[in-house]
Design brief:
- There is one protein chain.
- With 481 residues, the chain is mainly alpha-helical.
- It folds into 3 domains: 91 residues, Fumarase/aspartase (N-terminal domain) (Fumarase C, Chain B, domain 1), CATH 1.10.275; 250 residues, Fumarase/aspartase (Central domain) (Fumarase C, Chain A, domain 2, Up-down Bundle); 73 residues, Fumarase/aspartase (C-terminal domain) (Ribonucleotide Reductase Protein R1, domain 1), CATH 1.10.40.
- The strands form 3 sheets. The protein has a two-stranded antiparallel ribbon. It has a two-stranded parallel sheet with strand order 3-4.
- The longest helix has 37 residues.
- The site of arginine has 9 residues, from α6.
- Arginine (ARG) binds next to α6.
Length: 481
């Protein structure tokens, strides 16, 4: 029964077998394992190890098995330990003893490393599409509410007004870097370990270039010991997933606050919120909370993968089997979270009135007024003090800066120790001029630099993001070579 059982005469202990087997997890590699085996059979034929008849019998058997697995018609046997043994056994059932030639010049060590890279390639392709979908949802929401403005915060305190579109585009930037990180990791993972054997390289004249090409890899790995025991590509992918989850978690946190009636900036759709079993009034952002919560697990997956590797001497050690639960969990969690966040964002309703109303608290245009004073030739530190006085007066009167009378602005200039400020206070109309600078739209328009929140800059950034997303939808990165 045990494919490695030649030197063993005793039975495996049931506890040991249950503890070491991986089929429940690595069944996810079934199609990749079969694809790797198909390429390996071709390679064995090219090397003259298989006859043409052997080759066609094995390829027919693997092809049939592949269709049955894809259609969910194959049940795996836990007694067979892992997916590699299961595929070989299933093939033997179909084609008979010729299947005994399949594992020539191959070890499960180069096999599993190959399978995992194939799995990663197709999974990252789906993740890339998911990241792009969420970017699209954010950009679409920004396009729907181009004029919405909210109080941007630092230290969770009101800071400066920003366009909602600007805020949403910040996440688009993060997600775009996430796509780049995956693409970058995939470039290094794009090598075929097949032919590395257990540790030292296959003992047959396998054309590893041809096999790599067959599997769509850029080329073969360069060192058999590295190829069978390296899991950099696992760590890098989990790291990219963990950072992407952190980005989603930040967005989830904001949506949770924004949907709180105290803020009232957005309303969640019924499709992406839940109720309470006890409190009939509740509408909770549970999907966002779970994205935030599961981010912790994915960060843990990263820690687990690094810790698994740190004490391993070359080459393959069985510890490496633990790469799969964390990799599958991290990338699976990210994929599901991306889908939920895209749906949640797409179905948000924005209350632009409430957002604008909120900008009346916290004197968020104060910096714009200071900048206006500086533009009239006053040093910034002086302007900062002058505006501080205006802010204090607005607080005293429990009003917002642009509702103050002009004289308060003039008075704050005149009261300064800096003679340049007192001189400016004498200029006719200066109070009204500064009061105008305290207006919301003036403040927004003043941040007119690349990457700033001035409406014309944001409109440009939004159009550029839309153009890029539509272009990448046609030709996504990470496409099959
Ligand atoms: N299930 C193993 C893994 O995932 C496959 C390789 C096992 N190799 C071995 N020599 N025991 O790593």
């Amino acid at each position: 029964m045990r494919l490695w059982g030649g030197r063993f005469s005793g039975e495996s202990d049931e506890r040991m077998a249950a503890f070491t087997r991986s089929i429940e997890i690595d069944a996810a590699l079934a199609l990749d394992d079969i694809d790797g085996s198909i390429a390996h059979v071709r390679g064995l034929r090219r090397a003259g190890i298989l006859t043409a008849e052997d080759e066609s019998a094995l390829l027919a058997g693997l092809g049939g098995l592949r269709s049955d697995v894809a259609a969910g018609r194959v049940a795996w046997d836990p007694a067979l330990e892992d997916i590699h043994m299961n595929v070989e056994a299933a093939l033997t059932e179909r084609v008979g003893t010729v299947a005994r030639r399949l594992h020539t010049g191959r070890s499960r060590n180069d096999q599993v490393a190959t399978d995992l890279r194939l799995w990663l390639r197709r999974t990252v392709r789906a993740l890339d599409a998911g990241l792009l979908d969420l970017e699209d949802a954010l950009v679409t929401l920004a396009e729907r509410e181009p004029g919405a403005v909210l109080p941007g915060t630092t230290h969770i305190q009101p800071a400066q007004p920003v366009l909602l579109a600007h805020h949403l585009l910040a996440y688009v930037e993060m997600l775009e870097r996430d796509r780049g990180r995956f693409a970058d990791a995939m470039e290094r993972a794009d090598r075929s370990p097949l032919g590395s054997g257990a540790i030292a390289g296959a003992g047959y004249p396998l054309d590893r270039d041809a096999t790599a090409r067959d599997l769509g890899f850029a080329g073969p790995t360069a060192n058999s010991m590295d190829a069978t025991s390296d899991r950099d590509f696992v760590v890098e992918s989990i790291a990219a997933a963990a950072l992407a989850m952190v980005h989603l978690s930040r967005l989830a946190e904001e949506v949770a606050w924004w949907s709180n009636p105290r803020f009232g900036y957005v309303r969640l759709s019924d499709a992406f919120s839940t109720g309470s079993s006890m409190m009939p009034n509740k509408k909770n952002p549970d999907p966002a909370e779970l994205v935030r919560g599961r981010t912790g697990r994915v960060v843990g997956d990263l820690t687990a993968s690094l810790t698994m590797l740190k004490g391993l001497p070359l080459a393959y050690q069985r510890d490496l089997q633990e790469d799969k639960p964390v990799l599958f969990d991290a990338l699976g969690t990210l994929e599901a979270s991306l889908g939920v966040m895209a749906g949640l964002v797409a179905s948000l309703s924005v209350d632009a009135g409430r957002m604008r109303e909120a900008t009346r608290e916290g004197h968020v245009t104060a910096t714009a007024v200071a900048d206006a004073i500086v533009r009239l030739g006053i040093p910034f530190r002086t302007a900062h003090h002058v505006v501080g006085r205006i802010v204090a007066e607005a607080d005293r009167r429990e009003t917002s800066m642009d509702d103050l009378p002009d004289e308060v602005f003039t008075g704050a200039l005149g009261a300064d120790a800096d003679p340049r400020a007192t001189e400016l206070a004498l200029r006719p109309g200066i109070g009204a001029e500064l009061r105008a600078a305290a207006g919301l739209d003036a403040a927004l328009a003043s941040c007119d630099v690349i990457g700033g929140t001035a409406p014309r800059r944001v409109a440009g950034a939004l159009a550029a993001a839309r153009e890029r997303i539509d272009r990448q939808r046609v030709a996504p990165t990470g496409e099959a070579r």
